Automatic annotation (TrEMBL):
Protein name: Glucose-1-phosphate adenylyltransferase
PROSITE patterns attached to this UniProt entry: ADP_GLC_PYROPHOSPH_1, ADP_GLC_PYROPHOSPH_2, ADP_GLC_PYROPHOSPH_3
Native source species: Paracraurococcus lichenis
Residues covered by the Glucose-1-phosphate adenylyltransferase/Bifunctional protein GlmU-like C-terminal hexapeptide domain: 308-411
Pathway: Glycan biosynthesis; glycogen biosynthesis
Amino acid sequence: MSRTRTEGPLARTAMAFVLAGGRGSRLMELTDKRAKPAVFFGGKSRIIDFALSNALNSGVRRVAVATQYKAHSLIRHLQRGWNFLRPERNESFDILPASQRVSEHNWYLGTADAVYQNIDIIEDLAPRHIVILAGDHVYKMDYEVMLQQHLDSGAGVTVSCMTVPREEARGFGVMAVDASGRITEFLEKPADPPGMPGDPARSLASMGIYVFETRMLVAQLRRDAADPASAHDFGKDIIPRMVADGQAQAHRFEASVVRSAAETAPYWRDVGTVDAYWEANIDLTDVVPPLDIFDHDWPIWTYAEVVPPAKFVHDLAGRRGEAISSLVSGGCIVSGATARRSLLCTGVRLHSYARVDGAVLLPQVDVGRHARLANVVVDRGVRIPAGLVVGEDPVADARRFRRTEKGVCLITQAMLDKLAA
C-alpha cells in the first residue's frame, strides 16, 4: 500500500548506517595507513564522501559511520568535513569505532555484527527505516526512491542491485528475481555466477545497499547474533535467510541512479583494486566523463581544505607549465612541467621539465625535475626524485614498484627509500 504523500519524505525519518571498517587489501599499500573509505578520490574527496553525500542529498539527516581498520585518517576527515549536522535540527552524525560494546573480546566480526553492536544507539534515535550502506563505492543514488519502493512492496528487506558481466560477478552477491522483483535466490560471491534469464552473459549483482524497517532489522540482528554458526554478515547470513523466508525484494539501480544531462549511463564503481582505482580517477579527465562531479544539483560534499588556487608558471619552449585533459586541485604548482590526462590532488608540485601522463597523484606529492611518470598512482606526500622514469620499462617498473596486471604502477615513499638505500 502506498504511503500518503502528506507524510513527507521517508528519508527524513530514516537513518543511514555506513559500514566503513574494511581495510581494502586489494588496494595494496594505499591502505597500509588508512581504511579504504578514507582513500582520496577525484582530487579533493575521499571515497566515503559519495555514500555520505548520497544520503545527505536524498534527505537523510541521521547518519552513523562504523569504523574499525586504521580509522584515524577516516575519523579525522569525518570530524572535519561532516560535523555540520545538528541535533537541534533533529539531525545526527555518529562515528562508531569498534569499541567492544557487546563483548570485551570481540571487535566487529562482520557487517551485520557492526550494526548489532550499535543497536542501543539505533534504538535511542528510533528511526523508522535503516539504510545500510557500504562506504567504499563511487556512485550517485537517491535513496528516497528505494525507501519508497521498500514501503510500497511490504518487503522485509530491499536490496539494491545492478547488472554486471557474468565474469565480474564472482566478487558480488548474485541474485535471481521473479516477475514481481522478489528475490528467489541469493549466492554470496559464487565461483560460477548464474546468468540472467534471457541474458546468460550478465548477472544481477547486489550493491551492498539494504533498506530495512528498524524493527525488522533489530529482530534479524538479534536472531543472527544468537546463532554460533553465523559469520554475522549481511551478504552471507542475513540476506540469504530473508530470501529463504520470501521477505527480500530487489531494487534496480537504474530506478534511483542520479544522472546529470552529461551522464549517458548509470555509473557505479567498486574502486577496490589499484587498476579500478586508477581507471575511475582517470575517467574523470575525459572531455565528457562517465561520472559528473560538476553536477550542482547533486554535490559531492567533503572537507574543503583552505588552500590557494592552482598555479602554472614558466612559458618557455620545453619548460611550460601546462595541464591537458587533467584535473588540478587547489594548492598545486605546475612549474615548467606538463600534466596530461592526469589527476592532481591538493598541494601537488611538478617541477621544471617533469612530464606526467595518466598519473593519479595524491596530496602533497612532489615530482622532481626531468621526471617522467606514465600510468601511475603515487601515494600521499611522496617525493619523486629528479630524473625518475616510470611507465616505459615494464621489467624495471615491476622490480622497483607495485606494478599491476594492466601496467599501472603504485609508488610509495617506502619503495623509493629502498631504491636509495
